[in-house]
Amino acid sequence: MNKLLMEENDRLQKQVSHLVYENGYMKQQIHTASAATTTDNSCDSVVMSGQNQQQNPNQRPQRDASNPAG
To answer: What segments bear the compositional bias annotation Polar residues (predicted)?
Structure first.
């Protein structure tokens, strides 16, 4: 029984080491991704203009002069 517990302890210690390594890697990836998103704002105007159009549902869409039905 003691040998089984020691083997299980060893297995768990290896698993913890692996998870700590993965955690550090994921933190680095998140930091890298967040740094990239805070410096690249080139698409913000497109996103914001789309949101502004959807905020007022009572406003009628503009008619297309070239379309007789519009």
So the answer is: 32-50
